[in-house]
Design goal:
The chain is of the alpha+beta class. Strands 1, 2, 3, 10, 11, 12, 13, 14, 15, 16 and 17 form an eleven-stranded mixed β-sheet that branches. It has a six-stranded antiparallel β-barrel with strand order 4-5-8-7-6-9. Helix 1 packs across helix 5. 26% of the residues lie in helices and 29% in strands. The protein has nine helices and 17 strands.
């Protein structure tokens, strides 16, 4: 598989609402395929194939979880709020990049050590307890570095090829973006109807890009491409495992935002079975995807996801075979998008 492209997508900085680097990279990659995306006012780039109805949107989101500076302390530390469901406990002690007015500024996430917290029992920290240390000694020094209120930050860019797996920042959902780009290679469009391949903004902060695109396109069908929760790790009871690495793409049955279209879900499963592509069924009652944005406008929707361990943390892990099987399945879906 093309780990070079996935690496580029992984290390690009794109916290929710600040996806410019990722959007530029995706536009360049689509251009290499001879495709020129349109971009709506919200910032969602998309490519349209075919015309008329039915219309399907296949979407992967560009944004990642991160932070937004809400206050600069007199001693130069940056207090932050969350952009998406970032894990406070997983963030402590990790390097981040603050996207400042004068360029990128490196820093480290800190918090008051638990054994120094007031009270008899240490409590679980929240994002409000965190700060970013950029090495400034005063507020004025931090501001001179170009960081201040409203500056976004995200985890330090890193990507590693581990042989059978890859490890990197923001695989939720750069792996979905990768799958969609790879699936479009050589694609000329459906035999009838319209297929829209989209890359959305602000999924992590409320499915906002998908909602805007759904309002614009009013699709009959929608499929979100995701890097999803794989919690097949020590300590997880078998009945609580959401997805597993190595078991193929996850087809979403339900989550916090949708109950999947049984017609569309059955169609995708049938494509997988016909092609000998392994897959697993996913039930995620506490999470959601862009599919939830499309169902608000009446679309029949589901999600196809690559299982990823440790999403919303500094580094996550995915298995190459799962990524390759997901690409194979999405290519078949693009070829045969309409349920019988």
């Amino acid at each position: 598989m093309n780990t070079t492209l996935l690496s580029k997508l992984s290390v690009a900085l794109g916290p929710s609402g600040f996806e410019g680097q990722v959007r530029k990279l995706i536009a360049e990659e689509l251009g290499k395929l001879g495709l020129e995306p349109a971009t709506d006012p919200r910032g969602n780039p998309y490519v349209t194939f075919g015309e008329g109805r039915p219309l399907m949107v296949v979407a992967a989101h560009m944004d990642e979880v991160g932070f937004l500076v809400r206050h600069v302390e007199d001693a130069g530390f940056l207090r932050v709020t969350a952009l998406g469901g970032v894990s406070a406990s997983a963030s402590q002690g990790h390097e981040v990049v603050v996207m400042g007015r004068k360029g990128e500024v490196k820093g480290v996430v800190g918090s008051t050590p638990p054994h120094l917290q007031a009270g008899a029992q240490p409590r679980e920290i929240t994002v409000e307890d965190l700060f970013i240390d950029v090495g400034a000694s005063t507020r004025e020094e931090a501001l001179t570095m170009g960081v201040g209120i409203g500056s976004p930050a995200t985890f330090f860019p890193r990507f590693e090829d581990l042989g059978g797996c890859v490890a990197g920042k923001a695989l939720d959902d750069r792996v979905g973006c990768y799958v969609l780009i790879e699936s479009l290679r050589g694609y000329s469009g459906p035999e009838r109807g319209t297929l829209v391949a989209a890359f959305t903004v602000q999924e992590e902060t409320g499915l906002r890009g998908a909602l805007a695109l759904a309002h614009r396109l009013r699709p009959d069908y929608a499929v979100a491409l995701e890097g999803t929760i794989a919690n097949d790790v020590p300590g997880t009871p078998a009945d609580r495992v959401i997805t597993r690495l190595g078991s193929g793409p996850a087809l979403r049955v339900m989550d916090r935002t949708i109950v999947a279209s049984s017609e569309l879900l059955s169609h995708i499963a049938a494509l997988a079975e016909r092609e000998g592509i392994p897959y697993q069924l996913q039930i995620s009652p506490y999470s959601g995807t862009d599919a939830g944005g499309f169902v608000h406008y009446g679309s029949a929707a589901t999600a196809i996801s690559v299982p990823v361990r440790y999403i919303h943390s500094p580094v996550s892990i995915a298995r190459k075979s799962d990524i390759e099987h997901t690409i194979a399945l999405v290519r078949k879906l693009l070829e045969y998008p309409w349920p019988a």
